[in-house]
Design brief:
16 helices; mainly alpha; globular
């Protein structure tokens, strides 16, 4: 139990798997650009997980959201707006700064305009954090509306296929339905995981069956049909939750649980060891795409975790831990201490 919410092993394990899938996707396509050849195994794995990787991320993010949505306004602003804003702004500056300093590396072209657009257009991979903050704010404003109305709104956005070319409205329309589902269906999702753990044979069979359905749709080229895309998102998410819950119950998901409990650190910093490892392997003459991707993926996951362990009690801890100066709670405690004195 933490000070804010309970830790549930299978939830952390699912979060760990999700961040690994996110890193895997970027590692695979980055290696394709660097090697001019698509990794065979990881290409198929990426194609299979595309329909449910991000839906799973936002669905799991909504599982414990209800408490925050009903919390005191100051607490909500601190934990769900300032928290995300701090890391988004800090790491946007870091990422754009690195790309600006190394203009020859990678596919992105960086200009000073990218710095100015940070508040409006998320850079690269950091749109996840921006989107989470917006989802929480939207659900906070809609917390007393009929659930069917909110679900209908989110579903309508998804089916509208909004494509403005601007990351925020496009991703909001495409992903909000999954966050809403995580918030409203949280009790059902926990019961589903508990059932899979209690009846492992059937849970395993249904999880595999759901994955088979996703593969059937994806590899037959049907994933672009909007309704089927939505279906594969939920099927893949449900199958992943059941299978990972079973693994966690058997004690076989500890590495995933460890990564999931620290997923923010990986998400913020994986781009740097990923790029550095890829550059080193290519210059050393490695040509096997799958081998390169596997090594890049391992380093991109491990190095941010190691960096956090090294820096968490150093002056550079602000890279992974929000300083007290950027917390509303710290301001309130200081004010209360002054008043008491």
């Amino acid at each position: 139990m933490t000070a804010t919410k309970p830790r549930v092993n299978w939830v952390d394990a699912v979060k760990g798997l999700t961040i690994i899938l996110v890193v895997m996707k970027h590692a695979t396509y980055g290696d394709y650009v660097a090697l001019h050849s698509m990794p065979f195994f990881f290409n198929y794995l990426c194609e299979f997980t595309i329909p449910f990787r991000m839906p799973l991320f936002f669905l799991v993010a909504g599982l414990f959201a209800e408490k925050a949505l009903r919390s005191e306004r100051r607490d909500f602003i601190d934990s769900k707006i300032l928290h995300f804003a701090y890391f988004y702004l800090l790491w946007s500056l870091i990422q754009i700064g690195i790309k600006f300093a190394l203009p020859g590396e990678g596919a992105w072209t960086i200009t000073w305009k990218d710095f100015a657009l940070i508040p409006l257009e998320p850079f690269g991979l950091l749109w996840f954090i921006y989107a989470l903050a917006i989802f929480f704010v939207t659900m906070r404003l809609a917390r007393d509306l009929p659930k069917v109305a909110v679900v209908a709104f989110a579903l309508a956005l998804y089916l509208a296929k909004i494509n403005t070319g601007w990351t925020l409205p496009d991703e909001f329309a495409r992903r909000f339905i999954f966050f809403v589902s995580g918030v409203y269906a949280s009790p059902f999702i926990f019961r589903m995981a508990s059932w899979a753990i209690a009846d492992m044979g059937r849970g395993l069979a249904i999880g595999i069956l759901l994955f088979a359905g996703v593969g059937l749709i994806v590899f037959n080229g049907l994933g672009d049909i909007r309704g089927l895309e939505l279906l594969t998102g939920f099927m893949g998410a449900a199958g992943t939750i059941m299978l990972v819950a079973i693994l966690a119950a058997r004690g076989w998901a500890r590495p995933l649980t460890y990564v999931g409990a620290r997923s923010l650190y990986v998400f913020l910093a994986f781009f740097l060891p990923m790029a550095a490892t890829r550059i080193a392997l290519v210059r050393l003459g490695f040509e096997n795409g799958d081998a390169v991707t596997l090594i890049v993926l391992a380093m991109a996951i491990a190095m941010p975790l190691l960096a956090f362990r090294i820096l968490e009690h150093s002056p550079l801890s602000f890279l992974f831990v929000r300083p007290q100066a950027f917390r509303l709670h710290a301001t309130r405690r200081n004010a209360e201490a002054t008043a008491s004195a």
